[in-house]
Structures are given as C-alpha cells and as structure tokens.
C-alpha cells in the first residue's frame, strides 16, 4: 500500500511581486508537483493590499494586510484607516507584514517612524483579535518587550527568524511561531542551524520569502515556493524526524497560528 506523500505550505512569500510575472504560473505548477498545497502572501503597503484579495481568489492562496517598515516613504496616515476597514473582511488572515528593522533605520527619526507604524498595527491586531506577521531585524528584544507590555495575545509568526535560541523562546512564550527558510541552507549558517535544531518542532513554520532569500541549493534567479520540499528535508534532518511526521507537525503549527486558515480548510 502506497503512503500518501506529504503536503507542504509556504507560510510567507511575495508570490504577487512583479519580479515573478513571467514565471509565476510555471513556478506554481512546479510547486504543486513538488507537494506544495498552498501559500500565504503578506501585505507590505496599501497599493499592494488593495489587489491581494483578487490575486488570491480561486487558488489555495491566503493573504494578510500590513504596512512594512521597508516602505516607510509610501505609507500615509490615512493608510491606517484603510487598513482598519480592510481587516474587517473575513478573508484577511493576519496583520502584517509589520515590524521593526534597525538595518533600514539609519537615523533616530526613521526609528521613530517605524515605531509609529508598528504600534498602530499592533493596536489594530489587538482590536480585531488577529495574529501578526512580523518583520524583525536587529530589534527582537525591543519588539518582544513591547508586545509583552501590551499583553498581546493573538500570537502570529516572526518571519525569517535569525535570532538566538533565547530570543526564539521569548517569542514562543508570546504565542509566536518562527519562520525559517533558505537562510538555514547556507554553509556559514552554523549558528542558525543549531538554533533551529535546539528549539522544538512546534516552534517552526516553513517559508520561502519568494522571490527573495534564495536557498544555497536554488539555481533560479528568483526563489520559489517550489523550494519548500527541499527546505522541509533539511528541517526534518535537523530534528531527526520523518518527512511525514514533519508535515503533520507543520500543518498543526500553521492552523494553530492562523485560525482563519483553519476555518477555510
């Protein structure tokens, strides 16, 4: 009797970005043949957020809405009014991609701007009891401390986690899971792989961040959800579990993190 092959989910990718316009359909077909059954696209600014619902329609694509710190120059204060209205739609899975990125903040003023948008989106997530998709670089301790002070309870996902085991545990205590992808595949990523192995499997969600964050083994110019099964094999090896066991655990992690995905299954 043949066993059912495992199915995977790309929990964070920008599959709508224009860089993929000429290869999106073949890449999605390849991903499906590889066992990828769905994906989650985060919002990064209002202009993108306004078309995500239509982009995801009639496919196993899910979306979140948020205002990313990379796009500070695009964000306008009335975008928060738009976001609040949009979050009331039942198809919106989470608030995000939102967060703090001190690699992008070259001045104290830019840090203050990032804090403004982050605080505002945390408040909206609390109001509508939605999980968050977080983009955090160089600010894990500050962001986690703020959410702790706010008694944030909806949890979510810390995308592209590259922090320490201690920071990972701090996020876990706040109800967040950690996104891991191509970064762990690079030869010099010894510390990250140790952290991935040290934290329990219920900590993790697999992601590609396509079209960015190409794994070391990926030959394409753009990353793709089709790389998820290869990343899954690496994660299974680090935790010494079978692919079937890993797939079941990741599915549980996904549905616990994003209840609106569970409701639509």
TrEMBL record:
The keyword Hydrolase applies. The lineage of its organism: Bacteria, Pseudomonadati, Pseudomonadota, Gammaproteobacteria, Oceanospirillales. A divalent metal cation 1 binds at residues 12, 14, 97, 209. GO terms for molecular function: hydrolase activity, acting on ester bonds; metal ion binding. A divalent metal cation 2 binds at residues 135, 159. It holds the Pfam family TatD_DNase. This is TatD family hydrolase. It comes from the Bacteria. Belongs to the metallo-dependent hydrolases superfamily. TatD-type hydrolase family. One of its GO terms (cellular component) is cytosol. The keyword Hydrolase applies.
């Amino acid at each position: 009797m043949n066993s059912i092959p495992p199915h995977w989910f790309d929990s964070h990718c920008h599959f709508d970005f224009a860089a993929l316009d000429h290869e999106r359909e073949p890449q999605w077909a390849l991903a499906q043949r590889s066992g990828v059954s769905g994906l989650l696209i985060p919002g990064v600014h209002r202009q993108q957020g306004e078309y995500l619902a239509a982009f995801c329609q009639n496919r196993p694509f899910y979306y979140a809405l948020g205002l990313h710190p990379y796009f500070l120059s695009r964000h306008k204060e009335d975008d928060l009014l738009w976001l609040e209205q949009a979050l009331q739609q039942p198809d919106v899975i989470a608030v995000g991609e939102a967060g703090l990125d001190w690699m992008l903040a070259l001045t104290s003023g830019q840090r203050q701007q990032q804090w403004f948008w982050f605080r505002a989106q945390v408040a909206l997530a609390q109001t509508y009891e939605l999980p968050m998709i977080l983009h955090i670089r160089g600010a894990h301790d500050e962001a986690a401390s703020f959410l702790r002070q706010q008694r944030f309870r909806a949890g979510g996902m810390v995308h592209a986690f590259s922090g320490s085991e201690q920071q990972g545990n701090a996020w876990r205590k706040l109800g967040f899971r950690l996104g891991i992808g191509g970064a762990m595949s690079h030869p010099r990523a010894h510390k990250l792989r140790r952290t991935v192995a040290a934290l329990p499997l219920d900590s993790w969600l697999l992601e590609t961040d396509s079209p960015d964050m190409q794994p070391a083994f990926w030959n394409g110019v753009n990353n793709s959800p089709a790389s998820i099964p290869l990343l899954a094999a690496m994660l299974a090896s680090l935790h010494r579990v079978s692919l079937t066991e890993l797939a079941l655990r990741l599915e549980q992690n996904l549905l616990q993190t994003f209840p609106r995905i569970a409701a639509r299954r």
